[in-house]
Automatic annotation (TrEMBL):
One of its GO terms (cellular component) is plasma membrane. It is found in: Cell membrane. The keyword Transmembrane applies. Keywords: Cell membrane, Membrane, Transmembrane, Transmembrane helix. This is Putative MFS family arabinose efflux permease. It comes from the Bacteria. The chain crosses the membrane at residues 7-25, 45-66, 73-92, 98-119, 131-156, 162-181, 213-234, 246-264, 276-295, 301-324, 336-360, 372-388. The lineage of its organism: Bacteria, Pseudomonadati, Bacteroidota, Cytophagia, Cytophagales. PANTHER family: CHLORAMPHENICOL EFFLUX PUMP RV0191, PURINE EFFLUX PUMP PBUE. It comes from Algoriphagus boseongensis. The keyword Cell membrane applies.
Length: 395
């Protein structure tokens, strides 16, 4: 029992560092755009390079990671992630930072795949839900503590500091992997015919219901990731936030989400996934519409709107995840979800890239065309509602 708890806390720590490493770059946008003198489209490439590489590696990783002892492969993959994060910390230029983000993304994607595999191997089915809950709580903790603290330290010194700290924490986590994660090799002895990447793609694309679920994932990512990467740069350049004050957005948004996420899950079970998804998707349109049209605005009002954005974004994701997961039978669910996860990350990358091409910068340093990005995000979000109605849950 003690060893299982230590293992889960180790996985939660790894997940926390990996999530903060991904999330921290977006609120650092104002500093990076100013210091490297880069355009919104160049900044969006920094964000999308991570998601593209993580999406590809997590998908293809699912087909070769099973050939190795989980502990050994996690240790080596996490060394790669640590090197990528250290590369971010040392980056003196935009080009080197971009390359370091690709390396971090590749190994970050593999880390995510391994965390899920280890929980599946070690934790009994009846306890797996609470184990997942503990490890995935790292996301909320990263939003409430990790990102704001990283931003605070960056505003006191410079943008390199959060990555130095994440590198140090990654080295500590390597020690935890060595000490608390046992050798896990039973899966290597199982004679299971595992599908090739081509077979997985073929199986999903030939199933019209699963293709609708995948399309729903893509549309949801476009509805969110056209907005999220530019939330911080826009609030600094146009709304009147200081770089230090950006921490309030993440503390308030992440803090509320910790409490609303379980509540949304219960509502979904009680009133139906589709109904709750539709309600939160419609509510989500309100903050998107307001955020993308703001000028100089009092901070308390902005925080109210950004918090509503965080809460409603999470509120639509919770029932949608249940709907999408239910389109696959148990025997094919793992490969379907790894494909869906990869598609989500690639879609998030394209969404931020397209937003970066639309958004411009005027002579005063303000971002332009964010309202157009808002209209496009609303369009993709609205499409999700009839699409979700056509997705059939079979399991």
């Amino acid at each position: 029992m003690k060893s299982e708890k230590a293992l889960l806390w180790t996985l939660a720590a790894i997940n926390f560092i990996h999530i903060v490493d991904f999330m921290i770059l977006m609120p650092l946008g104002p500093q990076l755009m100013r210091l490297f003198e880069i355009s919104p489209s160049q900044f969006s490439l920094l964000v999308s390079s991570y998601t593209f590489s993580a999406g590809a590696s997590s998908f293809f990783g699912a087909f070769f990671l099973d050939r190795f002892d989980r502990k050994k492969i996690l240790f080596w993959v996490y060394i790669g992630f640590t090197v990528g994060t250290l590369g971010c910390a040392f980056s003196p230029s935009y080009g080197i930072l971009l390359a370091a983000r690709v390396i971090s993304g590749i190994f970050g994607g593999l880390t995510s795949a391994l965390i899920l595999a280890i929980i599946g191997d070690v934790v009994p089915y009846e306890k797996r839900g609470s184990a997942m809950g503990l490890v995935m709580s790292a996301f909320s903790f990263a939003s409430v503590m990790g990102v704001p603290l990283g931003l605070f330290l960056a505003s006191l010194s410079d943008w390199h500091t959060p990555f130095y700290i994440l590198t140090g924490l990654s080295i500590v986590s390597l020690g935890m992997i060595y000490k608390f994660i046992p050798s896990i090799s039973e899966h290597m002895n199982l004679e299971i015919k595992r599908p090739s990447p081509l077979e997985v793609v073929s199986r999903v694309t030939s199933n019209s219901n699963q293709m609708r679920a995948i399309t729903l994932s893509i549309m949801m990512m476009f509805g969110q990731f056209m907005i999220i990467p530019f939330l911080s740069p826009f609030n600094v350049a146009n709304v009147g936030f200081s770089e230090m004050q950006l921490t309030y957005i993440y503390i308030a948004g992440g803090g509320f989400t910790i409490f609303t996420s379980p509540w949304v899950g219960k509502l979904s079970d009680k009133y139906g996934k589709l109904k709750i998804f539709t309600v939160f998707m419609l509510l989500n349109l309100v903050p998107i519409g307001i955020i993308t049209h703001l000028g100089v605005t009092p901070i308390p009002f902005v925080l109210m709107i950004t918090t509503m954005f965080f809460v409603t974004s999470n509120g639509r994701y919770v029932p949608a995840a249940a709907i999408i997961t239910g389109t696959a039978k148990p025997e094919n669910r793992g490969s379907f979800l790894s494909f869906n996860s990869a598609v989500q990350q690639v879609a998030a990358g394209f969404a931020s890239l397209i937003a970066g091409l639309i958004i411009g910068e005027n002579e005063a340093g303000q971002l332009t065309n964010f309202n157009i990005v808002g209209y496009i995000a609303i369009f993709f979000s609205v499409i999700c509602i009839p699409l979700a109605k056509r997705v059939k849950v079979i399991s």
